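Support reply, case 0932

Customer input (verbatim):
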Amino acid sequence: MRGNFKGIMVAAMILMALIGMAGAANYMYEKAAVEGVGYTNTEIIASTQVGYTGVKLVEKQSGSGNVISSRMEFEAERQLNSSYKPLPYGCPYWNEGMNMDYINFTKEAEMEYMPVSYQNGSYDQKWVEKLCVQTYRIGAVLTEMYTHAEHLQKSKEVKTRAYGADLPVDCCTGVLEANLNSNVIGVAHIGWISRDPVADKKLLKGRHAEYGRSVEDFTGVFSVEKFIQLWANSTCGAISVDWLPCV
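Our regenerated output:
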């Protein structure tokens, strides 16, 4: 009787763990369109893994004035565990393609700064927008930031992929791609870094080797077009963002 009870308890604990795993919101999607006059403060934070792994995105925007148009689409999914192994879902459609963590983000917006008052409150803030995307699988990070903007017209498309650990040798392990276009009156900062995801304990005393870096800062009136492609290697397939947009 005691053995049967112990077996029932173990089965119940396993079932609870599977229910908890299946209940997590591993797929996230949002689409929005905003127009108006006033003060806005928006924020999107997404992470496919806990800690310094997976893919992460943070996007913040705030300011007062005329939001001529703002359209955004965001999608993220976690298909791997913290060791980059496929999650144990039993769905028949799950393994039709390659398992991966990914975050896709697209935004088009145009804003003009001006002080605004509403009821008993007044708002006076030039436009600020910050975007940071990290792909720990391949040691790649992208930053796009605008501050003190009196006018900001921009479009951006960012796509990331972090593939599982069960891959043949020398296969692509991850991707970070971005297409950025903006017209800004204010301050702009755009940059990316590519580092080895594995720390070098001998030559660099535990630090990560840096293979590439690009940093640009602008103050004034500028038009910026930039296409960024950070791949684990040349086996990652086709480019997933539009590298030749209409401007």
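We compared this against your earlier run and they match. Two observations from our side: Confidence is low (pLDDT under 50) at residues 5-22, 92-96. The chain is about 10% helix and 55% strand. Please reopen the case if you see a mismatch on your end.
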